[in-house]
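Q: Okay, next protein. This is Choline transporter-like protein from Dorcoceras hygrometricum. I've checked the sequence twice, so it should be correct. Can you predict the 3D structure?
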Amino acid sequence: MSDSSTSSSSYDSAVGAPQPSVVGSHSTSQGIFAAVSRHWHDVFWLLIFMAHLVVVGFALAVLGLNGFKQKDRLNIDQYTMGFLENKDGLTEDYWPLYAVAGGVGALLGWTWLLLLGSRANQMMKLSVHLLTTYLAVISVLCFWIKQPFWGTAFAAGAALQFMYVVSVIERLPFTMLVLQRAVNMVWNLPEVTRLTCIFMLVMLFWLSLWSFGAAGVVALSFRDSGRWWLLLVLSVSLFWTGAVLCNVVHVIVSGMVFLVLIHGGREATSMPSKPLIKSLRYAVTTSFGSICYGSLFTAAIRTLRWEIRGLRSKIGNNECLLCCVDFLFHLVEFLVRWFNKYAYVQIAVHGKSFNHSAKDAWELFQSTGVEALVAYDCSGAVLLMGTILGGLIAGTCAAVWTKIKHPDQVLMVGCTAMLMGMILVGLAMVVVESAVTSIYICFAEDPLLINRWDATFFNQMSEKLHQRLQHRSARAQEVLSHTIDDQI
């Protein structure tokens, strides 16, 4: 195998470290260490994202200033005569309410990072079991304040959450095993948690501007429908911005985890100096367009995939419904091929475009059979449950204060505050998810990397993969025999 000094453009050579001679069981295992060029990819989406930040930032400033200390300071009402209700409201009436959500979300995120090494496993188990209860409580509160639509929505969410947990209950022991090993990996990289705290501060800065504009929207004299549509547009923008920051951290952590696995440990003498800085540089320059592009779709598609898998396992023998769900399942699987979270690991290591990275990652999993293990693991869902729970807590705190100060705006402030909390907690959760995705990519590319890092964990993963492949083979034989019987 060639030394990394032969090319300054590969990931490992960029950090100035020699590449170890490791031979994996998969034919493309050498691809981890291959020299690749670091070109700018998906530049169009980078430009779109930056333009979106400028436009949305300007709009937020205008909307916030319009009601700051003086109603309709910028005379926006004269352009919306058909939507006015002549309500009195100022930006500063609602801005502190969003500050509560931002403070609670940041506190929960920093608490998660602080307890990452000692109590992370217990916190993840708690989030799985507590989320259903919390959704049910929020549903009751919505009915109590005479909001039947939102009460029904949260009740449906509680039911879906309960059904999902029941459908995957046998997978949770293996999921917690993988999460525990990922937590141990990240805990030994303290610079990663420090960088995540910095990104949370950056997100708080943007949230201060976003909440200023959102408070201005709530204070506008539009009808409720007009304000909801404006807040929806701003929420989509915030979701994209938060996802981009989370995935920047994802790429950085993935690069760091790969280096640790390749070099055999954080304290190895072959580890390059200041790898975090160079991972950060790639993430915010040549790979930033790919991150912006993937952040638009991956979270929504992944969530839809989990829900369809849970529904598919509960249908039973209803052939018509099973046919419809199978169609949706195959459609989502096709989308997953082009938009999956494992693409960010390929972006970190190889510097590819997003679609190329996603396609290569999925083909790698399918060709090695590791896709069966990835499909069985629920670590992403468990971390998402913790993120949602954190957002609900932040939104509830803001909604309770809004109920005291402005009872007619509880849901409007509470829903948007929940999104703020989810983004801040999600930034803390993503460090573990990045480690999990990197472990699976390494296991598919070269299992010896995992074996050298932790032989016991490697044996457990290999045994579970063997079980899943046997299970799939048995199901395939059963389907084939049924098909032959039907033809006969």
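A: Here is a summary of the prediction. The two ends are 55 Å apart (CA to CA). Residues 42-297+339-447 form one domain.
Q: Noted. On to the next one.
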